[in-house]
Specification:
The chain is α/β, with parallel strands linked by helices. It is built from ten helices and 15 strands. Strand 12 and strand 13 form a beta hairpin.
C-alpha cells in the first residue's frame, strides 16, 4: 500500500466490473483503483476515463507488473479466470475472483495451490454469502436454532433469461445455467448447511429452448458478442450428496416453460428450517408450529463482499469464501456435467 491506500487492479472491463466491482471499490475508504485491462482497448479506455483510473493495460500480465497494485478483481469470461489468477498469485497480488472459480477442477486446484504457494489472499466472489438474509440464516444456524441441517433445496428458474454473448459459448463459459447462476444457489445452500464435503452427484441437463427469439424479454448481455453460438445446456436438475448424510436438491434454468420462476434457497433442519426470497423461518414453539419473518435492512451485497476482501487483506486473515471453497464448488459443478453426460450418479 502507498499513502495508506490499497491499490486495486481490475482484470476485465465488462458488465460485472462496471456495474458491481468498480462502484463497490469506489465506495470504500482508503482504496484506489490503479489500473484496468481488457481485450477491448476502446472499452477499457472509456471505463478508465469515466472512473479516473490511472493505468490502462493491454493485458493482465502488463497490469500485474504495476507495483502500485496490491490486489485484483478478476471479472473476465470464465476461461480467463485460471491464467489470470495464477499470474496474479505469482505476482504477489491478492485476488477477488468472480464465480465460477474456473472451467475445470484441475484449473481450480492449480489456482488454489498458486495462492497457497505465494501466500496471498484468494477470495471467491460468492456474493450471495454477503446478503442480509444470508447473515440472518447463518446466525440462526450458528446458534443451533435449526438443529441438524440434513437437507437443502435450491431453485433458480428463468422462463426466458438466456444471457447474450460469451455465456453460451462453451469454450469461454464452461457451461450454461449450472455454472452461471446455479453456482450461486448451490454455493449458498452448501454454505448455510455448514459446508459438508460433497461425495456424489446425480444430474440431468437439457438444451431445448435456450436459443430462443422470444420478443419482449430482457437478457443479461456480455459486452463481447462476437462469435455468438449456443453450445450449453439451458436447464438442469439433480441431487448432491455429502459425507455427513445430508443432501441438496437443485433445479436451474435459463429458459423453461414454467409459471413459477425466480430464485430461492431452502435448508431443512431437525428443529427448524429456512428459506430466502422471501426470508422466512419455519419452526415450533410450545408445541405449536410457528413461521417467522425476520426484518432485515436492504444492503448492497457487492459492497459487503468488497469490504470483506479489503479487511481480510489489511488484517491478514482468510475470507469466508477462500480458494478451498471455490475448489469444492467447482467439483460439484463439473460433477453435475459429468453425471449428466454419463447418465448415472458419480463419485466426486
Amino acid at each position: 500500500m502507498k499513502n495508506g491506500k490499497l491499490g486495486i487492479g481490475i482484470i476485465g472491463a465488462g458488465n460485472i466490473a462496471q456495474n458491481a466491482h468498480i462502484p463497490s471499490y469506489l465506495r470504500q475508504k482508503n482504496v484506489e483503483i490503479i489500473g484496468i485491462c481488457d481485450m477491448n482497448e476502446a472499452r477499457t479506455r472509456e471505463v478508465a476515463d469515466r472512473y479516473n483510473i490511472k493505468y490502462v493495460a493491454q493485458d493482465f500480465n502488463q497490469l500485474l507488473s504495476i507495483d502500485e497494485i496490491d490486489a485484483v478483481s478478476i471479472c473476465t469470461s470464465n476461461d480467463v479466470h485460471h491464467p489470470a489468477a495464477v499470474a496474479a498469485a505469482n505476482a504477489g497480488k491478492h485476488i477477488l475472483c468472480e464465480k465460477p472459480m474456473a472451467m475445470t477442477v484441475a484449473e481450480a486446484e492449480s489456482m488454489m495451490n498458486a495462492a497457497k504457494r505465494n501466500n496471498i489472499i484468494f477470495m471467491m466472489g460468492f456474493v450471495n454469502r454477503f446478503r442480509a438474509d444470508t447473515n440472518v440464516i447463518k446466525a440462526f444456524s450458528n446458534a443451533g436454532k435449526f438443529g441438524e441441517i440434513y437437507a437443502g433445496k435450491v431453485c433458480w428458474l428463468r422462463r426466458r433469461g438466456t444471457p447474450l454473448g460469451w455465456f453460451t459459448n462453451l469454450s469461454k463459459s464452461g457451461g450454461g445455467p449450472v455454472i452461471d447462476i446455479g453456482v450461486h444457489i448451490i454455493d449458498l445452500a452448501w454454505y448455510l448447511m455448514g459446508k459438508p464435503n460433497p461425495t456424489r452427484v446425480s444430474a440431468v441437463t437439457y438444451s431445448k429452448i435456450g436459443n430462443y427469439q422470444t420478443k419482449g424479454v430482457s437478457r443479461w448481455v456480455a459486452l463481447d458478442t462476437e462469435n455468438l453460438v449456443f453450445e450449453t445446456e439451458d436447464s438442469a436438475s439433480g441431487l448432491i450428496r455429502f459425507d455427513n448424510g445430508a443432501s441438496l436438491l437443485f433445479e436451474v434454468s435459463w429458459a423453461i416453460n414454467a409459471k413459477d420462476t425466480g430464485m430461492y434457497v431452502q435448508v431443512f433442519g431437525s428443529k427448524a428450517g429456512a428459506r430466502t426470497n422471501p426470508l422466512e423461518i419455519y419452526g415450533e414453539e410450545e408445541n405449536y408450529l410457528v413461521d417467522s419473518h425476520p426484518i432485515v435492512k436492504d444492503e448492497n451485497a457487492f459492497d459487503n463482499q468488497v469490504e470483506h476482501f479489503i479487511n481480510c487483506i489489511k488484517e491478514g486473515r482468510q475470507p469466508i469464501c477462500p480458494a478451498e471453497d471455490g475448489y469444492l464448488v467447482q467439483k460439484i459443478l463439473n460433477g453435475i456435467y459429468d453425471s449428466a453426460k454419463l447418465g448415472k450418479e458419480i463419485e466426486l
